[in-house]
Amino acid sequence: MAASQDSPVTIAVMGATGAGKSTFINLVSDSQLGVGFGLESCTSDVQISLPFTLDGRIVTFIDTPGFDDTVKTEAEILRRIADFLSATYESGRKLNGVIFLHRISDYRMGGVARKNFRLFKKLCGDDALKSVVIATNMWADVTPEVGAIRESELSTNDLFFKPALEKGAKFVRHDNTLESAHKIIREIMGFPPAALSIQKELVDEHKSIGQTAAGQDLKAELEVQIRKQKEEMDGIKAEIQGIIAEKDQKHQEELDDLNISLSAVRKQLSAFEAERNKLREENESYKRDNEEKTNKLLAAMKEREDQLRALEAHSAKQMETIQALQESLVSVEDQLRSQAEEKEKAHASLKSLADEHRQEVSRIREEFEQKLEAARREKERQEKERQQQAQQWGPRPVLAQWASAQLQTPPPPRGRMPLTQLVALAVNHFLRV
What we know:
It is a single chain. By secondary structure, the protein is of the alpha/beta class. It folds into four domains: 199 residues, Rossmann fold; 75 residues; 89 residues; 31 residues, no CATH class. The protein has twelve helices and seven strands. Strands 1, 2, 3, 4, 5, 6 and 7 form a seven-stranded mixed beta sheet that branches.
C-alpha cells in the first residue's frame, strides 16, 4: 500500500558514531543538532529534528546515537532507541523508513562496525529492511577508484551489507549535497509506513528489551566478552599464583604488572556484567525517567509538526490570496492589453482614414488646380478672342461703315436733308477728327 500523499513522514537515521547522522539531518531540516568531528559521540540520546516540508509533505527525522557511543553503553543506547520507537508505535505512528549512514572513508569495516550493523538489522527485522536505505557518505575523503572498490566490497560481502540488500534494502551514495539528501528522502517518502521488529516485539508481543532479537544479540555478545574476560582473568591469576609460589624478588615487578592487569580485567568484567544485567532487569525508576523523556520528545515532535502544519495552512491561504491577486492582475493586464490592442487598431484605422483623407484632399486639390488652370487659360483665350473681335468689330469701323452707307443714299430733290444723313455727316466728321 502506497503512502498517503499528505501524511507526515517520519524517518530514523542510524549509523556509527561520527558517521554524519546529525550533519545529514541539519543539512535538510535546518536544525541545530550537535555535530561532532572527533571520536567522541556528540549525540548520546535520541533527538528529533525540526520538521520541514518537502514536496508538500511534513518530514521529521529521528536522530539516534550509535551503538559504539563513547558516553553510554550499548545496552543503554539500545534501551533509549527501543523506548522511543515503541512509544511512537504505541501512539499510532510508524516509520516511513530508516537511513543507515556509513563512511566510505573508513579503511575497513571492522568488528565494531559489523556489530553495530548487526544490531541495526536485528532492531529492524527482515521485513522492515525493504524500508531501509544504506547511504555511503564522505566521498570527498577518498579517490573515486578507492571509493568504488570499497563500495563493491560492502555490497557483495556477506559480512557487510549484502544480506540486507538481498532482503530489499537500498544502497546509494550521498555526496553531502542538499540535492543528494532530497533524493534519498524522496525514495523513503514512497515507502508505506511500517513497524520495525523491535517495535512489534516490545508493544505487540510485550517482550522486555533483553527478550527482543536485538537484546538477545547484544546479550550474546556480552556473554562472549564476559567469558573472554574471565578466561583472561583466570590466566592472570594463574600467573600470579606461579610467581607467588616462586617467592623471588626477580618476579616482583611482573607480579605488580599482573595485579594491575587483573584489576583492569576485573573492572572491565564488572562493566560487561553490569551491562548484561541492565538487559535482564526492568528498573522501574529508569523506565519512568526514560518514559518521561520519550513522551516529552513525542509531544515536542507533535507540537512542532502541528505548528508547521498551521504555518503551511496559513501559507496556503496566503498563496491562495496571492494566486487570486495574480489572476486578477493577469485579468487586468489582459484587459489593458486588449484595450491597448483595440486602441492600436483604432489608431491604425484612424491613421488609415487620415491617409485616405489626405490622399482625397490632395486629389481634389490637384483636380481643382487643374480646373482652375484650365479656367484661367480659357479666360485668357476668351479675352484674347474678344480683343481680336474688338479690334475687328470696334465702334469706329461700324460707325464709319454706317455713315458711309447713309451718305450714299441720294438726297430728295427738294426740301431738307433727312435726319439720318445729317447724323451720318456728323459721325463722319467726328471720325475724321
